[in-house]
Amino acid sequence: MTDFQTLRAGEARIAVRKDLRVPMRDGVELAADAYHQPDQTPRPALIAMSAYGKELQALALTTPPQRRPSPMWDGCIEAGDIARVVREGYVHVIGDMRGTGDSGGEMIGNYNFGGVAQGQDLYDLVEWVAAQPWCDGNVGMIGISYFGSMQVLAAAERPPHLKAIFVSGGHFDFYETTYHGGVMWFMPRAAREGRGGDSSIAHTNVRSRMQQLHSPEVLAKLVEQRLQDPDVAAWPNLVHVLKYPKNREFWFDIIMNPFDGDWYEERNPITLASNIDIPVYLQIDQGRGWTVDGHIELFDVLGGPKKLDIGSYPPMQSRPWIEEHDTMFRWYEYWLKGVENGIMDEPAVSVFVEGTREVLTAAQWPPREIAYRPLYLRPRRKLSFEPEYMGAEYAAPDGFYQAPLTVTDKVEVLDWSSEPFEAPTEMIGSGAAHLFVEIDQPDTNFILRLWDEAPGGKRQLITTGYLKASQRELDEARSSEGDPHHPHTRAVPVEPGKIEEYVLRLYPFAATFRPGHRLVVELSNDEPLADAHNALLPPDAFHLPVGRPVTHKTYRDAAHPSRLVLPFTRASAE
């Protein structure tokens, strides 16, 4: 007698055990589905857990994968290719985190905070799956983005039967997931509210951590303080969420916490990752700077067997997610099935280099020795390896006035271009931008984008940098040339009319500029409303615009050496 039903996916037959009830140590039950081949043979299991709803993930059996900018692309279908997982000889377990979907219990706050830690639930789930007659006791995990972060939280709890994980596109430093350089990013809104085409969290019983911590009277005062930020006050969705906080509890918590600190660190998988001792494979594609940064940081923290694979642009995989499965199954074939396939004989780090499209391998990141070199902003919107020798009275600043998007749909952008490169020029690593700027308001955003421009004008984004002017303070202990870090723990208003040096962190990248190509850097305080790169991202993947009119003057003279500091590989730097 069987306790499963059989589905058909193409020519294949798949058995599914629907709505399994998995007991947690506190008595709450989580809901999960288990997909496998129709016979009763015990197999390794790959677990996918999220707050997005297991029924949404089941669309992988019926919905062809979509790529951006398809309007059918749904960023929450991230658990993997069910039919292939089953075909490869695994049980694909897809479940709902507590307080979401068909699971019981209550989820309080984002990620790993409040109520019961999500890692604790994942520990109990792993051990329950391992004990089932349809599992052979070997358990891994699967899924990108939110699912990837859940893998790290699970591994940090050290469940005995979790043998390895494969993380693609995870979000780790939770502050950096929600505020880039202190500038609010709207993608978490999409994942929580379902805007921009995403299906969002399958809310059933979730609560705001801020509402749990503060009385209604205190919270009302904190909300009014947050609304003093003109950027927030000018954006209708944020005003709505702040005025009606029970409408979108998790997004409310993010809006109410614009500074880094304990609230984010307790949600930060990197904080917990030093406890991980099982094998970890990390995969991320270029063009998603904050997650490239997070994968590298996580790789450096991990102490057990590990690999880092940085893939090619463009930045967003299909939904349902099907990419990276070939590598993932090699990983699990070795660690869960004991097949000697040579994957552990290969170098730990693999990096795709844009431009030449070659793959570099090494034991560490970056894969080649680098030397930082400055490229200076010069008059006539040029970039040069030589600094400006004239003073500000002769090298007048470049400037622009940006009106709020409440009154204009035009985003002003300054750009500076290098001369065409005469030889292939390779850069790999993080970078910095030192900008000497005068503004006439207490705050603004700096949004910097670096492009590789071909002779015919075709461009590809190489990396980005963000900084909210009031959060310009540097963490001197962590910062080094080409690798600045900001604590983002408070706001220090800018003195209008004063020239300040702002240091932006440029997210890690790997690119070779071919002969005839130029490096172009763009500076604005809002993002262009549409361009070739933004079309590859979900509609909500932009940053909170500045809500006040601001005049910017960028000085690049002998006394104010505005410059990029870039990671040239040794051969290109000589």
Automatic annotation (TrEMBL):
Alphabetized InterPro entries for the sequence: AB_hydrolase_fold, CocE/Ser_esterase, Galactose-bd-like_sf, Xaa-Pro-like_dom, Xaa-Pro_dipept_C, Xaa-Pro_dipeptidyl-ppase/CocE
Membrane-spanning ranges: none
Keyword Hydrolase in annotation: yes
UniProt entry tagged with the keyword Hydrolase: yes
One Pfam family, short name: PepX_C
Disordered, as annotated region: 472-492
Superkingdom assignment: Bacteria
Alphabetical list of Gene3D superfamilies matching this protein: alpha-amino acid ester hydrolase ( Helical cap domain) (1.10.3020.10), alpha/beta hydrolase (3.40.50.1820), Galactose-binding domain-like (2.60.120.260)
SMART domains referenced in this protein's UniProt entry, alphabetically: PepX_C (SM00939)
Biased composition (Basic and acidic residues): 472-486
One Gene Ontology MF term: dipeptidyl-peptidase activity
Record's keyword terms, sorted: Hydrolase
Domain Xaa-Pro dipeptidyl-peptidase C-terminal positions: 329-565
NCBIfam families (alphabetical): CocE_NonD
Protein name: CocE/NonD family hydrolase
Natural source organism: Actinospica durhamensis
